[in-house]
Write a structure and sequence with these properties.
Blueprint (H helix, E strand, L loop, with lengths): L2 H16 L6 H11 L4 H14 L9 H8 L5 H18 L5 H8 L1 H9 L3 H7 L5 H19 L18 H4 L3 H9 L5 H15 L35 H12 L7
Helix pairs in contact: 1-3, 3-4, 5-7, 5-9, 7-9, 11-12, 12-13
């Protein structure tokens, strides 16, 4: 018996005593055989956590409960949303000619989706301003299906990006977006404005998944006045509340989650 295994059995025995549970050699062997693949060091840390946080009447945790503490289950829906979002971001930030770099950014789950949808160059070719919402939803469903199939094969989930400090748009979007905004706001149809904003927010955002909870949104709109003669009245002034609402609708599900 290794020192690590001995430490695990000692911790299990102590926890069983606290829970007033009789730990027979057969039961300790069952726990040992079922959990040792997770690593004794991680198991001992999990048992320390349980001992430190247990209440006086808590029963001895099951094998499944200990496994959940050591290696929590990954939410397939959250992983699928992240994978689809990373595909869209990679199209903009990496482009079609660096598939290895794109694969590293997207992760193996997202890359399975890319391969099933015709490969990286095809994904870059078909993604447009008009179909980004539809394709992102399709990729999300494909990622969920791939996750379910690959779960038994220990598929590596996409890595989370480094968190940016703050949740204001200035901390999330690159400066290039400021050049796109005036062009987007010249569109006449409000639905087209929201669609275009959502597309560019998705492509420019450095976030892998939307921010949840309370946020503060600070927006400055730079409007280029129409070319008119000096004495002519300018065009209709844009409605500030409509502009803010368009940005809020476009950012929902991309930058933040209501």
């Amino acid at each position: 018996m290794s020192p690590a295994e001995r430490q695990f059995i000692t911790a299990m025995t102590a926890l069983a005593t606290m829970c007033q549970f009789t730990l027979t050699p057969e039961i300790i062997r069952l726990y040992d055989e079922s959990l040792k693949s997770l690593g004794y060091e991680r198991l001992c840390k999990a048992l320390d956590f349980i001992i430190a946080n247990r209440r006086s009447r808590d029963p001895l945790p099951s094998i499944r409960e200990i496994r959940e503490i050591v290696s929590p289950e990954i939410d397939p829906e959250a992983e699928a949303i992240e994978a689809a979002g990373r595909i869209v971001q990679a199209v903009s930030s990496i482009g079609p000619y660096q598939p290895e770099k794109a694969r590293e950014f997207i992760g193996e789950l997202g890359w399975l989706v890319v391969e099933r949808d015709g490969g990286w160059q095809n994904v870059c070719r078909v993604l447009t301003d008009d179909n980004v919402g539809m394709l992102k939803a399709q990729w999300r469903q494909m990622a969920k299906a791939q996750f379910a199939r690959a779960k038994s094969n220990a598929l590596t989930a996409p890595q989370l990006p480094k968190k940016e400090s703050g949740t204001e748009a200035a901390n999330i979007l690159p400066l290039d977006f400021k050049k796109l905004l005036p062009e987007i706001l010249t569109l006449q149809n409000s639905a087209h404005i929201v669609s275009a904003l959502s597309f560019h927010l998705t492509r420019c955002s450095r976030q892998a998944r939307p921010v949840s909870g309370d946020i503060r949104l600070t927006v400055t709109f730079y409007m280029k006045p129409p070319v008119k003669k000096v004495r002519e009245r300018p065009g209709i002034k844009p409605d500030l509340s409509n502009l803010i609402k368009a940005l809020e609708d476009a950012g929902n599900g991309v930058l933040w989650k209501r």
